[in-house]
Design a protein that fits this description.
The structure is a homodimer.
Chain A lengths: L4 H10 L7 H14 L1 H17 L1 E2 L6 E2 L5 H4 L4 E8 L2 H10 L4 E5 L17 H10 L4 E4 L5 H16 L3 E4 L15 H9 L6
Parallel strand pairs in A: 3-4, 3-5, 5-6
Antiparallel strand pairs in A: 1-2
Helix pairs in contact in A: 1-2, 2-3
Chain lengths: ~200, ~200
C-alpha cells in the first residue's frame, strides 16, 4: 500500500531539506499532519515569504530582504576593513564569535571550475571594482580551509595585491579544546608550520 | 547582529519539525535560500495542500484526502478482522512488514488522562459502535508496549469482550537480530513469560 498522493507529495518535498532522508521525512509529515497543522501552515507561509522577498545585499551579497543589509547600512561599521566569507552562515558565525567591526563580502560559494563556478559567479568583478574604488584598505580572507576555499583565497589575495589592499588569512590550527591525538594530519601540519612566538 | 526578520521567521518556523533544533533550522533555512529556492516553494505548496486537504478516513481515522481511505474502500480487505494501532505511521509500517489483509482502526493517540486524552478523543465510541454492529469478528491490538499503550489495549479488550469479539495482542519479546545481553529487563521478562512451545 502506498501513502495517499498528497501525503507522499509532502514526504517527497520534505526531502529537499538538508539531512532529511526518507524515514525522517515520513516522520515529519505525520507529525505535522497529526499534531501540528498550525505549525505546518506557519512554515508554508514563512517559506513563501522568504523565497519571495529575501535577496542579496547589493554591496556584500548577504541574504537580506532590504536592498542593503543591516551591516553595510550601519554607520558604526568600518568600511575600510572587509572580511571575505563563503556563505551567509559564516557571517552570522563570525558576528556571534568576534567583535569584528568591519564589513563583509559574501562569495556565495567558492571557486570550483568543474561545477561551473568561476570568478563571475562569486561576484569577484564587483569585489575588484570595490578594491579599485580605493575605499577598502584591508581584507581578511575567511574562506574555508578546503582545497577550493584555499584556491579562492589565493585568487582574491592576488586581486587585492594589485590594488595595494593589505591582506590577511584567518589562522588554521588545532581547535581550542581539541586534542593533538585526534586532530587530522593536515590540520596538525598547518598548526606546526604556522606556529607563533610564545611570550 | 540578528538575522533579518524574514530569515529569522523561517528559522523559527522550521523548528516545528520534529528533531530540528536551532542549529539545524538555521542550516536548513540557509540551504533553501541559497541553493534550493524551487525546493522551498515546492515544500510550501505541498504543506498547504496537505494541511488543507488531508483529513481522517471516516471509518478507520487513517490520514487520507478521500472520505474513505484506500484500505477501507478496498473490496479485497477482510472487514471482519481489525487491527488497532496508535498512529497512521504504524499502519504503513505494518503494511510494509506483513501481508495482513484485514482493516485498521487508528486511535490517533493513546489513553492518557493527564494530557486530557480519554476514550472520546481516541474515537472509542465509534469503535464500540462498530463492535456492536457485529461486522467485526476479531481484533488485533497493536498499540505500543508502553504503559499508556498497554492501558489502551486493556480498555479496548474489555470493550471487545462485551461484544464477543475475539481479541489478540501482538507479541512482545526480544527483537529479531537483537542480543539478550543488550535487551532491557522489561522486554526480557516479557519474552520469558510469553515463551511458546518449540517444535
Amino acid at each position: 500500500m502506498a501513502f495517499s498522493p498528497l501525503i507522499q507529495n509532502l514526504i517527497d518535498a520534505l526531502r529537499c531539506l538538508p539531512g532529511v532522508g526518507p524515514k525522517s521525512a515520513q516522520r515529519m509529515a505525520f507529525h505535522l499532519l497529526q499534531r501540528d497543522r498550525p505549525g505546518a501552515a506557519r512554515l508554508a507561509d514563512a517559506l513563501v515569504k522568504a523565497v519571495d522577498n529575501v535577496g542579496e545585499c547589493a554591496e556584500c551579497r548577504l541574504l537580506t530582504e532590504q536592498p542593503i543589509c543591516d551591516i553595510c547600512a550601519s554607520p558604526r561599521r568600518d568600511r575600510s576593513l572587509m572580511c571575505i566569507v563563503e556563505s551567509p552562515a559564516d557571517v552570522f558565525a563570525l558576528e556571534q564569535a568576534t567583535d569584528y567591526s568591519g564589513v563583509y563580502f559574501v562569495l556565495m560559494g567558492r571557486l570550483s571550475p568543474l561545477d561551473g563556478i568561476g570568478p563571475k559567479e562569486l561576484g569577484l568583478e564587483r569585489l575588484e571594482a570595490r578594491f579599485a574604488a580605493g575605499e577598502v584598505k584591508e581584507i581578511i580572507l575567511a574562506t574555508n580551509p578546503t582545497v577550493e576555499g584555499e584556491a579562492t583565497a589565493q585568487y582574491i589575495a592576488e586581486m587585492a595585491h594589485e590594488h595595494n589592499v593589505v591582506t590577511s588569512r584567518i589562522a588554521h590550527g588545532v581547535p581550542i579544546g581539541g586534542e593533538l591525538e585526534y586532530v587530522d594530519s593536515g590540520t596538525l601540519s598547518h598548526a606546526f608550520a604556522g606556529r607563533r612566538e610564545y611570550r
